[in-house]
Amino acid sequence: MTVRIAMWLGPRNLSIALMRSFEARPDTTVSDEPFYAAYLAASGAIHPLRAETLAAQPSDWRDVVRQITGPAPGDKTVWYQKHMAHHMQPDFGLGWI
Hints:
97 residues
């Protein structure tokens, strides 16, 4: 069984320090802002590394939901997910939460 820790944060806080502490655990896998590409695609926001982010991550929020609610990468027993609340767009479904 995988324990999921879905940490919902806002900008300019200690989120990276907390994520790094979980990342140091051998039983834990970490996902850093899994909705970022979906946010960029849906909002049209121009951010640094936009093209690279869109190429590297799923840009459909439904694909992100399937990914983060599925099996943990590497069969780890703890999955820490660092989410940014402002990445959730009004048309992104919340029923999975």
